[in-house]
Amino acid sequence: MLEKEGQVRIPAGCAISGFISRDGNRICGDKIVKSISYMHDRSNGLGGGFAGYGIYPEYKDQYAFHIFYDSNESRVETERFLDRHFDVVNLSRIPTKKHPRITNEPLIWRYFVTPLPTKLAASQLDEREFVAQCVININDRINGAYVFSSGKNMGVFKAVGYPEDVGEFYRLDEYAGYAWTAHGRYPTNTPGWWGGAHPFALLDYTIVHNGEISSYDANRRYIEMYGYKCNLLTDTEVITYIFDFLNRKQKLSFEDIAKIIAAPFWSEIDSGKFSESEKQKLKYFRNVFSSLLITGPFSIILGFDGGLMALNDRLKLRSMVAAEKDDMVYLASEECAIRAICPVVDRIWSPRGGEPIIVKLNEKK
Amino acid sequence: MVINANEVGYYDLNKKIVECTDKDITVTGAMGQRYIGCGVSGKKITVEGTPGNALGAYLDGSTIIVHGNGQDAIGDTMNDGEIFIHGNCGDTTGYAMRSGKIFVKGNAGYRVGIHMKEYHEFFPKIVIGGRVGDFLGEYQAGGIIVVLGIGCDGKVPVGSFCGTGMHGGRMYIRSDDAPQGLPVQVCCEVADDSDKANIREYVDEFAKNFGYDTATLLKGRFYKLSPNTASPYKQLYTHN
């Protein structure tokens, strides 16, 4: 039984790491496992996970669903739902390796799917919205089923355990991607269960997060008005949906999203350090999206199709280090996680609170 | 004695340091191990690599020299001794420091010197060569923080919310302009010769260790920040 947050309670620190090859070179998953392992002491074995981008080139046009099941019954019910809505091109268990420290695993399946054209046309939705709604439906309505990854040419791998063990369990050395993120969990307010491990994902958006959101309930109430369901009762989930809402639906740039979720203080806006037009924009965002301001300590890495973004809360109550080496950009809670996989860097620095680092793939020449 | 930290966990590494009978220890290949030199007295510890968080926490009279960058919470609650970082360091450097000295050649992160305090002969000192992030000297209750702004071309080398909650101690900031947006609980004035004389000893130690000239560093304009006793502090934190 996958016990959800709230059904059990275990009385923060966390570790995050990520890197991207701007030239789109595919890098073996063992490298991100190595990076996060150097921050072992930031986790306590109650959650670890990874997101890899560019890992399924052979199925790059299909949505890759990674699903946890409590039981075969939930699998049968979910597959019935998938067959009604999608053309399932391929399905299999996700390859795993028995690991002494990863136990009580649910059933873990992977499906490469395309929306059925008739269903999609009948829904009058665009394709990504159709897929997102299907994912939310499964997670909300089918007992014991949880779609934890649903983007194209990317995938989330997560479990209860230390991240380095989770990486071995999922055999990440058999995958290669142009970008990876990782998380080591140290839950302080909510329990460690498989669905509660990071990254949290919807479509190609994934979030790894260190910290805790004081504004969680205000954010949740707002985002649920737009059809999202925050039923995992853990704060990080809502950040993923906020990015999906503001970037995919509202079509705002990641730079602007940072100005909404980590908005400057009113005193800073009024301090004269911004141009008049920028000041008007910041005020507009704070007024229109006041419920999407995220308060409390956080450092996050967002993964999306074609890039990564790192962001700290505006008070910078969690740590974040960034580094560059040739076409590579590294982001991590601690410098050691970068030096462990890239001993000599061209540049290393700490972004300011609320200052996003956005890295995208170079345009193909 | 040389201790190779490669693939050694923080607990075992610190056990080796504490149990080592040599006074002069070099740790090579550090990669994120926490608490290096925690509470250690009477030793000289040279670190190569990237030491982890809380380097020299509760340090009690040892000298730590890092050839590289430090991470967060260097000298957390340190009691006595000296820490030299030949690079940059992370957030909360000198967190709740009680005494001793920290010298950082490069930049430091947010909340440098948060909750520093002093009592009689216990008098902590932090000297940062470059610039620092927001909340410098947050809740500072004692001791001295010097930010030299090397490489900042005279621009203010400290971030926003400097001195929030400050109610003791002094900060000296080398800059052509005063930091903006200081809370009313903080007095800001141009440092005079007697003020500079007060920090000469520490600037000199910084200069000697990192290859700078004391007179050149002291020649520039410094701003002295101190608690404003006429307007004691009432606002607990910043406005949202």
Task: Please write out the topology.
The complex is a heterodimer of chains A (365) and B (240).
Chain A: E1 15-21, E2 27-28, H1 30-37, E3 48-53, E4 63-69, H2 72-85, E5 86-93, E6 107-115, H3 117-123, H4 127-141, E7 145-149, E8 154-159, H5 163-169, E9 176-177, E10 179-184, E11 200-202, E12 205-211, H6 216-224, H7 235-249, H8 254-261, H9 266-269, H10 276-288, E13 298-304, E14 307-312, E15 321-325, E16 328-332, H11 335-339, E17 347-349, E18 357-360
Chain B: E1 2-4, H1 10-19, E2 24-31, E3 44-50, E4 60-67, E5 80-85, E6 101-104, E7 125-128, E8 141-147, E9 168-174, E10 186-190, H2 193-210, H3 214-219, E11 222-227
Question: Can you give a write-up of this model?
Answer:
Chain A has a single domain (15-360), classed as Aminohydrolase, N-terminal nucleophile (Ntn) domain (Glutamine Phosphoribosylpyrophosphate, subunit 1, domain 1). In chain A, 29% of the residues lie in helices and 27% in strands. Chain A has 11 helices and 18 strands. In chain A, a hairpin with a 2-residue loop joins strand 11 and strand 12. Chain A is globular. Chain B has 240 residues and is of the alpha/beta class. Chain B has one domain: Pectate Lyase C-like. Chain B has 3 helices and 11 strands, in the order βαβββββββββααβ. In chain B, strands 1-2-3-4-5-6-7-8-9-11-10 form an 11-stranded mixed sheet, with helices on both faces. Chain A binds chain B through residues 38-39, 41, 265-268, 271, 295, 315-316, 319, 321, 334-337, 339-340, 348, 350, 352-353, and chain B through 10, 31-32, 34, 49-50, 52-53, 69, 71-72, 88, 90-91, 109-110, 133-135, 159-160, 180-181, 238-240.
